[in-house]
C-alpha cells in the first residue's frame, strides 16, 4: 500500500527532502544514497523542491510489499520546438542502496554499483487540463521492482518487458515496455556506489515483436524519429493508436527486416515453458541423465551449469563479438561477477529442495533423438532463434520457468558448446544442446524460415512438440504436432 504526499512533507520514516543547499542538520540525518539522487533531481528541477511522491507506507525492509520507498513525480515542460511535449517525469528510489546499512542492499564498496545499480524513470505525456500526475506509473514501477528483487535479474538499456496488458489498465495499445537510458538524468556517484537511470518506454505489441526479432536499441532509435511515438525523449503516450509501422510502413522493411538480415537478433534467450525428452532410450531407462536421483529426489542444474547458461544469455547481447558459450570456471561463484555481490541469489537457480549433483559427476551424453516441447508463446520464438541467431552463427537458450531444464540451440562455430556436428544432440544433466549441424550459418537457408512463420500461428494453444526428427528435418518437412506442455 502507498500514499501520495509532497516529498517535503514529514513521513513516518523519512525527514524532509533536502536539496543541494539543505541545512547541515537535515543533510546529516537524511540517508546518503537518497540525498545523492535528490541532488540530481534538484539539478534537473530546481523550481520543484518538493514534488508529489508516492510513498510506501510500510517500507520493504520492514516487511512491506513495495520495494521502492518512493516514486517522485515532476512536471517537465518539454521543448515544443524540438517536438518534446509537456509530460510527467517519474523517478524511483529503492533499487539502489539508499541507506548503506545493509537493511535492503549489501554494501560492496563505492566503486561498483549501488544496490542493483540503477533506478527506474518514466515519462508520460501530460493530457490537456491535467493538473496532477496519474499515480498508476508508480505501481507499474513497483511491479518491475518486485520482479528485480525476487528474481535478482537486473535491467539494461535495450531490454524489453512483455507485459501483455495495457500499462494503465485501459484499452490502450501500449501493452509492453522497452528500457533505455534516461535522456536527462546523469549517473550519480553515491557513498554506496554508482546509480544510473533507466527509462521505461511503453510500446505496442508489434513494436515489442520487432525488438525481439531484431534488437531493442534499434526499435528505440526508430521510436525517437517518430514524434507521436516517443520522439527524442521517448515520452509514452497511452492514447497512441498506431504503431510506428502503421505510421510509416517503410520502417518494417527498410529498417527492421534489413537490420535482422544484417545484424541478427541480440535476444540470446528467454525464460519459457519448455521441456525435453530423450527418445534415444526407453522411458523406463533409469540411466536417463535427466532423472539422476540422490535418494528419492531428482537432480537439479548444478551451480556451474546454471552459471554457464546465465552467461550465455548475457553474452548474447554482445552481438559484435565472436559467439562463445562461456567456459565453466570453478573459481567463479554464482551471481553476476561485475555488477552484483557474489552472495546474491542466481536468478536461474531453483528454489526447490531437490538435490544438486556436483558438476564433475555429471557426464555429457550424446543423444540420437529428442522430443522438444514448448508452449505457444515460446514456440513462436523459434523463427527468431533461426533467423536472428543461428543464421548469424550465434546461440539461443530456453530456460524452463517450471523446472530445472534448459535447451540451447547452437550453430556451428560457437565455442564452448558440447553439441557437435558429429553429435548434434548432447545433454549435460537437464541442459540440452542442439546444433544446427550439418548446417552452419552459411548453409541454413533463409527460405526455410518463412515456413516456420507460417506454421506457428496455427499451433494449438497448449503448445507445440518438435518430434524426434532433427531440427534440420523439421525445417524441411514442417513436422509439428500439438501437445500439452
TrEMBL record:
Q: Where is the Suppressor of fused C-terminal domain?
A: 254-433
The record's subcellular location field reads: Cytoplasm; Nucleus
Sorted UniProt keywords: Cytoplasm, Developmental protein, Nucleus
Which parts of the sequence belong to the Suppressor of fused-like domain?
Answer: 64-240
Quote the Pfam families the UniProt record gives.
Answer: SUFU (PF05076), SUFU_C (PF12470)
The annotated regions of Basic and acidic residues compositional bias extend over 337-348
Q: What does this protein do?
A: Negative regulator in the hedgehog signaling pathway. Down-regulates GLI1-mediated transactivation of target genes. Part of a corepressor complex that acts on DNA-bound GLI1. May also act by linking GLI1 to BTRC and thereby targeting GLI1 to degradation by the proteasome. Sequesters GLI1, GLI2 and GLI3 in the cytoplasm, this effect is overcome by binding of STK36 to both SUFU and a GLI protein. Negative regulator of beta-catenin signaling. Regulates the formation of either the repressor form (GLI3R) or the activator form (GLI3A) of the full-length form of GLI3 (GLI3FL).
Family, similarity comment:
Belongs to the SUFU family.
Specify the protein name.
Answer: Suppressor of fused homolog
Organism name: Bos taurus
Lineage of this protein's species? Eukaryota, Metazoa, Chordata, Craniata, Vertebrata
Q: Which gene encodes it?
A: SUFU
Amino acid at each position: 500500500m502507498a500514499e501520495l504526499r509532497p516529498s517535503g512533507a514529514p513521513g513516518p520514516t523519512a525527514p524532509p527532502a533536502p536539496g543541494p543547499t539543505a541545512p547541515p542538520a537535515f543533510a546529516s540525518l537524511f540517508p546518503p544514497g537518497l540525498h545523492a539522487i535528490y541532488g540530481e533531481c534538484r539539478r534537473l528541477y530546481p523550481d520543484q523542491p518538493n514534488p508529489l511522491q508516492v510513498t510506501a507506507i510500510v517500507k520493504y525492509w520492514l516487511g512491506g510489499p513495495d520495494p521502492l520507498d518512493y516514486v517522485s513525480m515532476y512536471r517537465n515542460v518539454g521543448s515544443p520546438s524540438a517536438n518534446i511535449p509537456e509530460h510527467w517525469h517519474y523517478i524511483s528510489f529503492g533499487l539502489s542502496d539508499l541507506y548503506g546499512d545493509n537493511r535492503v542492499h549489501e554494501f560492496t564498496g563505492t566503486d561498483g554499483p549501488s544496490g542493483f545499480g540503477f533506478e527506474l524513470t518514466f515519462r508520460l505525456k501530460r493530457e490537456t487540463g491535467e493538473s496532477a500526475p496519474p499515480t498508476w506509473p508508480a505501481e507499474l514501477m513497483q511491479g518491475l521492482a518486485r520482479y528485480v528483487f525476487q528474481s535478482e535479474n537486473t535491467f539494461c538499456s535495450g531490454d524489453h518487458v512483455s507485459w501483455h496488458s495495457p500499462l494503465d489498465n485501459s484499452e490502450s495499445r501500449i501493452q509492453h515496455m522497452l528500457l533505455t537510458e534516461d535522456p536527462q538524468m546523469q549517473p550519480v556517484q553515491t557513498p554506496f556506489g554508482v546509480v544510473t537511470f533507466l527509462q521505461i518506454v511503453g510500446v505496442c505489441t508489434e513494436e515489442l515483436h520487432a525488438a525481439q526479432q531484431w534488437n531493442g536499441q534499434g526499435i528505440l532509435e526508430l521510436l525517437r524519429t517518430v514524434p507521436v511515438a516517443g520522439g527524442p525523449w521517448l515520452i509514452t503516450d497511452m492514447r497512441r493508436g498506431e504503431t510506428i509501422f502503421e505510421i510509416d510502413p517503410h520502417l518494417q522493411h527498410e529498417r527492421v527486416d534489413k537490420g535482422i538480415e544484417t545484424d541478427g537478433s541480440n535476444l540470446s534467450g528467454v525464460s519459457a515453458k519448455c521441456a525435453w525428452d530423450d527418445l534415444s532410450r526407453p522411458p523406463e531407462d533409469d540411466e536417463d541423465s535427466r532423472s539422476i536421483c540422490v535418494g528419492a529426489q531428482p537432480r537439479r542444474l548444478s551451480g556451474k551449469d546454471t552459471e554457464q547458461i546465465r552467461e550465455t544469455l548475457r553474452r548474447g547481447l554482445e552481438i559484435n563479438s565472436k559467439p562463445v558459450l562461456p567456459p565453466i570456471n570453478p573459481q567463479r561463484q554464482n551471481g553476476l561477477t561485475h555488477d552484483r555481490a557474489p552472495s546474491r541469489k542466481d536468478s536461474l537457480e531453483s528454489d526447490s529442495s531437490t538435490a544438486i549433483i556436483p558438476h564433475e559427476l555429471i557426464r555429457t551424453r550424446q543423444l540420437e533423438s529428442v522430443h522438444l516441447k514448448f508452449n505457444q508463446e515460446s514456440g513462436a520464438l523459434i523463427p527468431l532463434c533461426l533467423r536472428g541467431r543461428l543464421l548469424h552463427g550465434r546461440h539461443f537458450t530456453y530456460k524452463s520457468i517450471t523446472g530445472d531444464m534448459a535447451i540451447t540451440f547452437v550453430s556451428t562455430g560457437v565455442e564452448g558448446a558440447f553439441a557437435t556436428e558429429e553429435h548434434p544432440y548432447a545433454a549435460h544433466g537437464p541442459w540440452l544442446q542442439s546444433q544446427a549441424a550439418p548446417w552452419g550459418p552459411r548453409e541454413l537457408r533463409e527460405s526455410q524460415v518463412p515456413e516456420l512463420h507460417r506454421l506457428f500461428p496455427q499451433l494449438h494453444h497448449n503448445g507445440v512438440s518438435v518430434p524426434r526428427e532433427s531440427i534440420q528435418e523439421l525445417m524441411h518437412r514442417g513436422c509439428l504436432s500439438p501437445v500439452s506442455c
